[in-house]
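User: I've been trying to design a sequence by hand for this structure and keep getting stuck. Would you show me what you'd pick, starting by listing the structure so we're on the same page?

Assistant: Good idea, let's start from the same input. This is the structure you sent:
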């Protein structure tokens, strides 16, 4: 387990109440094996989720003149679990997490959720300790920075729907998804799915659910058009 001073360096802040930062990294499962620890990060996550949504919404409103539908789609793409967990992983928050042995062995969708929730909990801790502007800076520097790419590459559009439109337009055929393999225990499955247009495989994706694997396959297939 890394020292919290390293977490402060990553975040770029010196906490007045270091306990807030420590709690933001405590998963509920940790309390089952460490009875002396009384608080996990879910309340901070609840607060951080609200701060995150407000900061992203404010940024979109202030910087883009697009209609509400566009702004809503862009916000959804920014704050979805996959986006937030990727940022959390990039920051190295996984190294500071306190979890049970069982949760530490988890992967896939379960680990994505834990990392996303941790990012929100850290945001909540920053808000309580340093105020709104500090939380806003943290979110802008680490999450909102990816917004231009999301807009340019149209990552806010559902990949499966987008590929179906493209395939029907270019090939005159509706794509079909085929399960290639399914491995792992029930709580930690990995699905591999191919997307075909006619007899040709256009993309292959894997994920902790069939839906996510299909989206990954469609995303890879889209690259052949874009």
């Amino acid at each position: 387990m890394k020292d919290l001073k390293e977490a402060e360096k990553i975040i770029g802040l010196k906490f007045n109440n270091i306990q807030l930062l420590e709690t933001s990294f405590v998963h509920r499962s940790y309390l089952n094996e460490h009875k002396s620890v009384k608080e996990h990060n879910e309340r901070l996550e609840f607060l951080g989720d609200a701060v995150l949504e407000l900061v992203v919404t404010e940024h979109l409103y202030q910087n883009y003149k697009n209609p509400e539908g566009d702004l809503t789609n862009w916000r959804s793409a920014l704050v979805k679990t996959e986006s937030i967990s990727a940022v959390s992983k990039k920051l190295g928050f996984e190294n500071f997490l306190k979890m049970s042995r069982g949760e530490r062995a988890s992967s896939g969708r379960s680990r994505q959720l834990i990392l996303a929730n941790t990012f929100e909990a850290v945001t909540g801790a920053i808000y309580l300790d340093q105020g709104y502007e500090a939380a806003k800076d943290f979110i802008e520097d680490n999450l909102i920075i990816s917004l231009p790419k999301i807009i340019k590459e149209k990552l806010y559009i559902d990949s499966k729907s987008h590929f179906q439109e493209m395939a029907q337009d270019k090939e005159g055929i509706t794509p079909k998804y085929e399960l290639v393999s399914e491995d792992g225990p029930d709580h930690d499955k990995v699905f591999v799915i191919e997307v075909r247009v006619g007899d040709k495989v256009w993309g292959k994706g894997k994920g902790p659910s069939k839906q996510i694997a299909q989206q990954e396959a469609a995303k890879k297939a889209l690259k052949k058009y874009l």
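That's my pick for every position. To get oriented when you compare it with your attempt: The CA atoms of residues 172 and 185 lie 39 Å apart. The mean pLDDT is 91.
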